[in-house]
Design goal:
Number of helices: 7
Number of strands: 7
CATH class: Alpha Beta
Order of helices and strands: HHEHEHEHEHEHEE
Largest sheet: 7 strands, mixed
CATH topology: Rossmann fold
Strand content: 15-25%
Shape: globular
Low-confidence stretches: none
CATH architecture: 3-Layer(aba) Sandwich
Bound molecules: S-adenosylmethionine
Length: about 200
């Protein structure tokens, strides 16, 4: 990552924290993932040479910039889904500002609908960063769309451990997946399809 992009990400993250600080209503906050979590997932994209990455929960595009920069290196595309129209517009602006707009498809919609329309075994890596209680319902479709050796990465797996317990149980109970919990940032749960 070049210095200009690293500075832009630092500025955007600080802007997000300043925006969220005074807001009591969780849903009004931008809730950008921590830089450590975004860096880990961007690393996975590069190591995996992932060309098809799906993020559910774009917010203003902070993490989408990290992932678009990674898929620029792999020759792939990030699809990122956001339910709030104003946030879609903000994300598009931020991705353009970061110079990675051509590497991301920002979809205005519900992550569950996008998953349902995604072809079988077509996605290398899925990032879940939306409403955590919904993740368990995503599981059958999410499992269907992942390629062999595909990865699912879930943010806030330590900070909101109880809200991802059902999803974690599904993942851990599936013999096709190897599961890990990475205690950085707010905690990133990963599952890789090993068989
Ligand atoms: C934690 S924020 C995402 C932060 C973003 N990944 C980042 O790091 O910058 C969660 C976002 O998910 C969106 N969201 C909630 N439910 C959704 C759904 N069912 N489908 C798509 N987006 C959803 C919210 O509007 C919110 O902007």
């Amino acid at each position: 990552m070049d210095d200009r992009l690293a500075r832009l990400l630092d500025d955007l993250y600080e802007e997000g924290r300043a925006h969220d600080g005074p807001l009591a209503d969780r849903l009004l906050r931008l809730r950008n993932m921590t830089p450590d979590a975004a860096r880990l997932i961007a690393l996975l994209i590069r190591v995996q040479r992932a060309t098809s990455v799906l993020e559910i929960g774009t917010s203003n595009g902070y993490s989408a910039i990290w992932f678009s920069d990674a898929v620029r290196d792999t020759g792939g595309l990030l699809t990122t889904v956001e339910i709030d129209e104003d946030r879609v517009a903000a994300a598009l602006g931020n991705l353009a500002r970061a110079g990675v707009r051509d590497h991301a498809d920002v979809v205005h919609g519900d992550g569950a609908d996008v998953l349902a329309k995604t072809p079988d075994a077509s996605v290398d890596l899925v990032v879940l960063d939306a409403e955590r209680p919904a993740y368990a319902e995503y599981w059958p479709q999410l499992r269907r769309v992942l390629k062999p050796y595909g990865v699912v990465a879930v943010d806030n797996a330590v900070s909101h451990r109880e809200q991802v317990v059902a999803f974690r149980g599904l993942l851990a109970g599936d013999p096709a997946f190897d599961v890990g919990l990475h205690e950085l940032g707010d905690g990133v749960l990963t599952g890789i399809r090993v068989r």
